[in-house]
Design a protein that fits this description.
heterodimer, A: mainly beta, Porin, 16-stranded antiparallel β-barrel, globular, B: alpha/beta, Rossmann fold, 8 strands, about 40% helix
Chain lengths: ~450, ~300
């Protein structure tokens, strides 16, 4: 059975045509069998027309390299990426099915045009930010365009896929994430290697365009090293833990140990490690709960690196996260609610001693129309490098999606900083995505 | 202290590297993206397969939440059957990637896109931009609403099942042939029921019924959505009402997951009847399989179009 070629498996008839001749279905109803045979014959002819068109194209592309491979259903035919390859290759088959063009299709550009099939999916997400109101602490300008994200995603080979996320700021380009994923490792492991956002809680893993607010919560900035959070180069391994009750996933990550504001590594041995446990359960068809616990350890980013040779101070982080989602399936495009909360504890050793700080945010986002969302968020967090200083904030957001590919958002934010200064601001954001259709966030 | 990071890392990794799960023998486990495919796959596979669908028939198949519980389903699957044509582009790829299941990765034998042989309509020609809305560049993915495509789907599934389980090839082939026979017979009945209304002009909410309309002779003259995926706008709605009056459109067909407010307003203004027509198995309680999908929809259409006192 292994001898069945790729083409025969794609070709419906390649397998079904022998069936009537085997006598399996002639007996009960000859008339129906006759009709069926006629239809199969039609399908077969249709398929052969398409196949010969594809073969002709292949021959044209290969320009004389293999003129001999014109025989039907030869072994070389699977070289045509007709079925499971990138979607662009599927167009010709469907086009013929729809009564569209058939026969030899023109190949635009030069001979290498076919190689575009293997180009990665490319998308660019633009992100324009604005701010109005007074804030003495963070001097964000009235308009800026930080971090437009360019994504390149493709399957590398049967064993791996690659994802690149480049952040284009106004002043430079930064590799936000760039990793290869091995989804088919033995033992049910899912491994990622490269630079990535650490699996610490929920918000830390989100790219800017997926964050449900314009800013990130204060606790991210205060305890995870700034707006960017923990992001570093290393290895991540995740495994599902089989059990009869819930979805349970354990992730272990090992990083170089450099993540601005949190971890800093001066030697190869000063790695940062991270563990994350995620539990998920559907409560009803519409409601589900997602819980997580995270732990991270690394050498503190204390700025000064005197005293080489002595043990450098460490930072330990513990996080708990909870997400409750509600989305009634029958009205899933109109109504939904997501409640989120994260609590983070930081125990940071510095040259001046240990600082134990903690913080949290709680938020709720409600979708009240096909394109309308509103949300609130409450923030409170001490600062990692000085646990006595505590900032608080409250925000209200309103989001409108003109389409699935653009988003307008306004956020009213009130902040009270530890130094005593207060700010009341209106932030706004326009995001737009061009290129390949990415996956929806969850 | 110096050893702590390494020790912690090693123990974290060790905890993860448990023995791989042993897979039980028995029926092939099929996971389909929609209930329509699940119904057809069950027809073909009989008791040699266990079929489970991800999206429910009453939800919009473009917007399914990629819940982790689906990862567990996919982890066990021997075959994943998808509608394709980018219908599932927003939710299925991350699930497949996280499934840790090499059998169902795109390109593997266990990944079956049944659209490849089907008759696909609405393949855009010329320049395609998102100004056209959430257009499907590979054609209309709602092709299962044509029973002829149902046959092609069944034969594709039979071929793939036979390839994976050659010992049951005869059974799969016979069951597929039987399904095709029954679908032919039912198709004739549905055609006969719809025959009096050939050329009937209708308006639909989304472009879900293109294949259905083509097969049963309905003429779709407009859409409630101004562009695919874009909700109705007042200007478009007014234009549509005028056009419906001009062309004497009697029916507005709406998928069960869309809001009825605008369709009803259009119905009131134009005199057309609003009909909720499930495009999928499971879209209404009584639609429990692929045959009942057409039984239900053809039945609803005929009773809506039949005039009081009409002899037809």
């Amino acid at each position: 059975m292994r001898a069945y070629s790729f083409v025969q498996t794609v070709c419906v008839l390649g397998l079904l045509l022998p069936a009537p001749t085997l006598g399996a279905e002639q007996r009960p109803d000859p008339a129906a069998a006759q009709a069926l045979r006629r239809e199969m014959e039609e399908l077969r002819r249709d398929f052969e027309t398409r196949m010969s068109a594809l073969e002709a194209r292949l021959a044209a592309v290969e320009t004389g390299r293999s003129p001999a491979s014109t025989g039907p259903q030869e072994r070389p035919v699977p070289a045509t990426p007709a079925e499971p390859g990138p979607p662009t290759a599927e167009v010709p088959a469907g086009a013929a099915g729809a009564g569209g063009p058939s026969g030899v299709l023109p190949v635009y550009g030069n001979v290498s045009a076919a190689s575009k099939i293997f180009n990665p999916d490319i998308a660019v997400i633009g992100n324009v930010l604005g701010a109005a109101g007074k804030n003495d602490m963070t001097g964000a300008p009235a308009f800026r365009m930080p971090e437009s994200e360019a994504t390149f995603q493709a399957i590398v080979d049967p064993y791996a896929r690659a994802d690149f996320f480049l952040a284009f700021g106004e002043e430079g380009v930064d590799l936000e994430e760039g990793f290869v994923t091995f989804p088919t490792l033995p033992g049910g492991l899912l491994a990622k290697v490269g630079k990535m956002r650490a699996s610490f809680g929920k918000v830390n893993t989100m790219h800017r365009h997926l964050v449900p607010w314009i800013d990130r919560p204060i606790v991210t900035g205060n305890l995870l090293g700034g707006e960017e959070g923990i992001s570093d180069a290393g290895v991540s391994v995740a495994r599902l833990i089989p059990n009869p009750w819930v979805f349970l996933e354990a992730t272990g990550q090992m990083f170089r140990g450099d993540s601005e504001g949190v971890f800093r590594s001066t030697r190869r041995g000063e790695l940062a490690v991270l563990g994350h446990l995620r539990g998920y359960q559907d409560i009803t068809e519409a409601t589900n709960i997602d819980l997580g616990a995270s732990y991270a350890f690394g050498r503190s980013d204390t700025g000064a690196d005197a005293l080489m040779g002595t043990e450098r101070p460490a930072t330990r982080l513990i996080g708990l996260d909870a997400t409750v989602r509600w989305r009634p399936l029958r009205r899933s495009v109109y109504r939904s609610f997501i409640g989120r909360s994260e609590l983070i504890w930081s125990r940071r050793d510095q040259w001046d001693g240990r600082h134990a700080a903690s913080g949290f945010y709680v938020s709720g986002d409600y979708q009240f129309g096909r394109r309308w969302f509103t949300g609130v968020r409450v923030d409170r967090s001490a600062r990692a490098e000085n646990a006595l200083l505590r900032d608080t904030g409250q925000s209200v957001t309103l989001t409108f999606w003109p389409s699935e590919f653009s988003q307008l958002r306004g956020q009213l934010r009130r902040s009270t900083y530890a130094e005593g200064s207060r700010a009341f601001e209106f932030l706004f954001q326009l995001q737009f995505s061009v290129g390949a259709h990415g996956a929806h966030p969850f | 202290m110096e050893r702590l990071p390494r020790a912690a890392a090693l123990s974290a990794l060790a905890a993860l590297c448990l023995a791989p799960m042993v897979r039980a023998q028995g029926p092939l486990i099929l996971v389909t993206s929609t209930e329509d495919l699940a119904s057809i796959a069950a027809e073909v596979g009989g008791d040699r397969v266990a079929v489970e669908a991800i999206a429910r028939g009453y939800q919009d198949p473009h917007f399914v939440e990629p819940k982790p519980s689906f990862i567990l389903k996919l982890q066990r699957a021997d075959i994943l059957i998808v509608v394709g044509r980018e219908l599932e582009v927003g939710w299925l790829p991350p699930l497949v990637q996280q499934s840790r299941n090499r059998r169902i990765q795109p390109g593997s034998t266990g990944y079956l896109d049944v659209s490849l042989q089907a008759r696909i309509l609405d393949i855009p020609r010329g320049e395609i931009t998102r100004a056209m809305g959430d257009v499907h560049p590979l054609g209309n993915p709602h092709y299962w609403l044509d029973p002829e495509n149902g046959k092609i789907i069944a034969t594709s599934i039979a071929a793939r099942l036979s390839e994976i389980r050659p010992s049951d090839k005869t059974l799969f082939t016979e069951r597929a042939a039987d399904f095709l026979r029954r679908l032919d017979a039912a198709g004739k009945r549905w055609q006969a029921m719809m025959a009096p209304y050939k050329g009937e002009k209708v308006v639909t909410y989304h472009r879900s019924y293109t294949n259905f309309a083509e097969r049963f002779g309905l003429d779709v003259v407009g859409y409630v959505e101004p562009r695919p995926g874009i909700p109705p706008s007042p200007q478009h709605t007014l234009g549509l009402i005028t056009e419906m009056k001009r062309q004497n459109v009697r029916l507005v067909l709406v998928e069960p997951y869309f809001d009825l407010k605008t369709p009803r307003a259009i119905g009131r203004a134009s005199g057309a009847q609003v009909l909720v027509l499930p495009p999928s198995v499971g879209g209404a309680k009584e639609i429990t399989d692929y045959f009942k999908l057409f039984d239900h929809n053809v039945g609803r259409l005929v009773s809506a179009l039949r005039q009081p006192g009409d002899a037809r």
